Amino acid sequence: MQAKLKDALAWAKADYCEIRVEETHATALSFRGKSLDKLSQNISYGGNVRALVNGGWGFVSFNSMDDLNEKVQAACRQAALIGSQKQEESALAPVTVIVEEVKAEIKKDPRDVSLAEKIELFAGYNDLIMNFHESITSSQITYFDRHTDLYFANTEGSYIYQEKVDIGCNMRAIATRGDVTVQEGIGTGSNDDFSCVLDRHDDLRKACQLAVDLLDAPTVKGGEYTVVLDPEMAGLFVHEAFGHLSEADDIKDNPEMRRIMTLGKRFGKDILNIYDTGLPAGNRGMSKYDDEGVATEKTYLIKEGILVGRLHSRESAARMGEKPTGSARAMDYRFPPIVRMRATAIENGTSTFDDMIKDIKLGVYARSGYGGETNGEMFTFTAGHGYMIRDGKIAELVKDVTLTGNVFTTLENIDMIGNDFRLVNMAGGCGKWAQGPLPTADGAPHIRIQNVVIGGAK
Fold it and tell me: Are residues 408 and 433 located together in one domain of the fold?
């Protein structure tokens, strides 16, 4: 493969050119209610050529390696046409030339588990949900595993082969009584171990019981509270509300965002440290090299409350006079790489959970991030469930816990950070510019935030 890609790149007439080729073997299944809803096994094969001329990019994707030199020339012609209109200097931050083959270090390989065994495993989980309680009326289970051989080469001399594995599973119980419907569940994922989906019966039973209990739980009363977020909810917050604001391809050509996201600006108290990393083994955002052949790293975004960094591709780094961070990622061969998160996290603090709640007269403990959306500086997130905090103690279960606010005000109002950091891998992923769901992870300890607006009952 190395020789084939090198020979094809010799035909490039561009300031820069790269080829990415991948083959992915995937299995997916899902249950909905009592039925096996989906079952698939497929192989996808393809690649792309990306070329840069006078600041203009050309991009050609393909499903056959035949006439690869012609595909290189076609991408270069596209780039030249766009570059003739832009008439800019092509700018890519310099990086080390890499020649390496990276094999996945797999603990339990999903390919060693037969399709029949996978169906039996998740059918058992589904039966557990459906038979747990008469109030549970349906279930949702999704599982997938993917094995990818990824090849990358460019005109600078880099050649990288990476073997990648991605595993994910979400399981939810849906409970209904009258016109009230609630759901609760568990999720997990890994890039190296099928064991993450094994022996989850106890966790699933707890989720089922919680779904049943939520039917009788009151809706939280709307208002402004001191709020404690569990690691899952805090991870969702830092990814959605701040991680996307740190992606430099959304900043470099936006003067207002460049003003807001000025390095050296204070965004929080000294206890606040936020980073994004592709390094920790086992998580779905891990990769030794990104899709531009750049080594990944741990990139601090906020250090002791101060904005100190952002996520970059080679182009955004060059345009902003900063260094690439190994954050250029593509969903698959059909897409060019763009700046994406990997595992975004709030660093561990020193506070215990008891310390966080002991002086709260009336507050909310928000758990299990269910989803949310952002619009610039503003966010809305929904917890899977919550508990009231009364006189320093965890009190009654509540539902429909929705947090809204301004991300920068909220960061400033984080006044305690726990010492119980947890990396959270779920089966979903991140979406951006029609590329999704891309494998990512989130991480955080418990965090405490003052003056959070909670929507709910009046």
Answer: yes
